[in-house]
Amino acid sequence: MNAVDTNILLRFFTRDDPAQHAEVRSLLAHTEAAGDRLFVSVLALAETLWTLRTQYRWNDVRCRAALREIADMAAFTLDHASAVASALNDPRLQRLDVADALIASIGMEAGCDSTLTFDKAAARSSNQFELL
Q1: pLDDT > 90: what percent of the chain?
Q2: Are 54 and 10 in contact (CB under 8 A)?
Q3: E-assigned strands of 1-132?
Q4: pTM summary value
């Protein structure tokens, strides 16, 4: 198994470099055909979401769809897969943006009671966040 960097995920989603996008599609097809998997770390996921939001101006709905697509692809093994699923599906986290939902779900997975924050919107949106 190999891991993928953020730029692989970005080329897959944004298609802003057609040649690199084609290389990524070929990699995915080869990986699936071989019955192999590509590892996606939670750091690569977080950096991808941040870049899509800030540099590509994707909204939260589109970012969630991207995360769901990665989670559903046979070619990928996700770091903290159950936390990713929780970030996407847990009703307690749906009012948060997807990055905050992922932070909260990883904390929940680790047995934390809540995630401390200065983010008032996150604290209003979910009882999984607590203002410091």
Answers
A1: 88
A2: no
A3: 2-3, 38-40, 76-78, 115-117, 129-131
A4: 0.87
